[in-house]
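As noted in the main text, all predictions were made from sequence alone. Below is one such record, for nicotinamidase.
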Amino acid sequence: MTRALIIVDVQLDFCEGGSLAVEGGSAVAAGVTAHVAAHGGEYAAIVATADWHIDPGDHWSDEPDFVDSWPVHCEAETAGAEFRPELAGALDHVQAVFRKGQYAAAYSGFEGSTEVDGSPVGLADWLRQRDVTGVDVVGIATDHCVRATALDAVANGLEATVLLDLTAGVAPESTEAAVEAMRASGVTLRQST
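Prediction:
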């Protein structure tokens, strides 16, 4: 099996001190860097996803419900959209960044694209072009973008594993629901060891 690592949304706004902070986000950034240092050579590809909002409509709200609407976060070209500094070691090995959500809500990394020879290429096609058949998914948040990315990986015919100790969830209840949804869809859930 040819595997890729997908690092989901380890951005400043989703970590401590950010506009939509998830507790444990900065620890995830450091953990992912350590994982790449130890296991990076086992992956055929390492990619990252990033929220990159320009005008995402009602995804942003001054009175967010934290289900479909959220405080302003990861605005394109702002500091909040940058990756956590603790992720720097892993980013040295990232071959492509898939930006998502420019003009709409986007939770799954498979909604994102990167530029190849001046044209946008989606994550599924990019992985297919490299004969990737399985992915490990890490990042933020377990109950939102990690969940959506893992479920879309399975929907795209990939074997998907979420390394739970390298993710951070928003809340215990929604994280547990996400874990159950992923398990029910055939996603493997384990520790990174």
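The first strand starts at residue 3 and ends at 8. The beta strands are 3-8, 45-51, 96-100, 113-116, 119-122, 134-140, 159-168, 188-190. These features were considered when defining construct boundaries for the mutagenesis experiments described in Section 2.9.
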